[in-house]
Amino acid sequence: MESQLGLIDQSFSNRYSNYVLEALDELPDNFTITDPSISGHPIVFASRGFLKMSGYSKDEVIGKNGRIFQGPDTSRRSIMEIREAIREERTIQINLLNHRKDGTPFWMLFHMSPVFSKDDGRVIHFVAVQVPISKKRRRSGCGYRRNGVSLSEDGSQVQDFVFGSCRKEVCSDSLLELGRVLSLEQVLEHDIRESEYEEPCEASDVEKRKSTTAMDNIFSLLTHYSELTGRLVCRKRCSIPDVGLLSSSLIISLGRIKQSFVLTNPHLPDMPIVYASDAFLKLTGYARDEVLGRNCRFLSGVSTDTSTLCLIRESIKTEQPCTVRILNYRKDKSSFWNLLHISPVRDASGKIAYFVGVQIEEGCNGKTQERRGLSPEMRLLSVVGSVKIAVRSSSMSAGSSKS
């Protein structure tokens, strides 16, 4: 968790000048900012308005994925639409039922937009503005019922019992007692099926304008503070993305793999690293921006065996996997023995898209892993398999979205 907090700090410090967080915190709107390049696609900023609306503290939100606000009653279709927008790196505006910390559901207008690097077209962040949909629109479909109790969109209880086929002998005193016992907390403990909902709330034109204005204000600040560093961001993709850049969806999928590995692109000059896992950064001591775009040879040093390097080059040339034991160096110049496995990674069409290099530091947690029945070789192959599935799935999705 400590290393992830460092990555979250770098999420802003590597792109914007100082005080950008303070400037964002002064905005009155409800919004979050996430970073798809960090494992788990976590929230890296949450506005004061959002924290007040959701009931969470800053420490409870930062570093978490937005799914913590979802519940069994959140529309699966809506979630899939949001994931599709992330995969396609585009803006989306959708009505969504989310939950506060105390469990109360509420309807909101969810407006999300990607933040692009002006230099290379890479997605830096996703900004998500959340505008609560007015309670006054309840008659147009807001609210839902559960166990005969009407609940408004903010979770407040309405004393409206539907007795159905209850026997007429039930006295009024019993009904009053039922009203006291059937508290809001008890109602929310039940699973709420989506089929039991009335039509979802529709955001008004005023609420849509509010979300657009909030998004304009946020991007105005991000643009200003990126200009001060010379690493500009923009709301729309200002340049054609480099062919070496990975899609946000692939980065998110790769981020779920916790072991140390890098992905290199053999179709670019000098076969640069285009993805590095958090575990790789922790192992080597480098920051992500110090790794991306470089050839893996920067890990070699004066005592690295040149014959081992020749084996690696030969396996890449022949497009064959290989496993070697090589002496590598961290950023602080300390050395470590690296059990390295390199393998080609093919896309859905069968063409080699990348090479993956998986690293295991010898003598580091090796015995613990072996006691669990995982030999170093099995661990290496497991990572390779996970990477291949992620790349293949991503290329299949990209192909289907273009057709």
Structure description:
This protein is an alpha+beta fold. The chain folds into 2 domains: 4-135 and 202-234, PAS domain (Beta-Lactamase), CATH 3.30.450.20; 248-396, PAS domain (Beta-Lactamase, 2-Layer Sandwich), CATH 3.30.450. 36% of the residues lie in helices and 22% in strands. The protein contains 14 helices and 14 strands. The protein has helices at residues 2-13, 20-25, 48-54, 58-61, 76-88, 172-181, 184-188, 205-227, 248-255, 278-284, 288-291, 306-317, 366-371, 376-402; strands at 31-34, 43-46, 92-99, 105-117, 123-132, 144-146, 149-151, 157-161, 233-234, 261-264, 273-276, 322-329, 335-346, 352-361. Helix 9 packs antiparallel against helix 14 (376-402). The chain is elongated, with a radius of gyration of 26 Å. The chain starts with a helix and ends with a helix. Mean pLDDT is 81; it is low at 137-141, 143-198 and 366-371.
Tags for this model:
2 domains; Beta-Lactamase; six-stranded antiparallel sheet; alpha+beta; 403 residues
